[in-house]
Amino acid sequence: MDKKQPKKSANYYLKYSGMAFQLGATIAVGAFIGFKLDERMGNETQYFTALFVIIFASAGLYLVIKDLK
Asked: What pLDDT is attached to residue 67?
């Protein structure tokens, strides 16, 4: 048996967990910006929060897909 297998599995786990944190942080920043805009504008319905979460989630998914290639 050949025991010279590269330890790439740990690198994959770190890469993918980093992508998950990046996506989560991106969505959180979008939610925070939208929440602050809704608060500043005095909106009862969280329109800006929903809009910015969608925009930042799309941007985060784009970054994740770009990193997968």
From this structure: 86
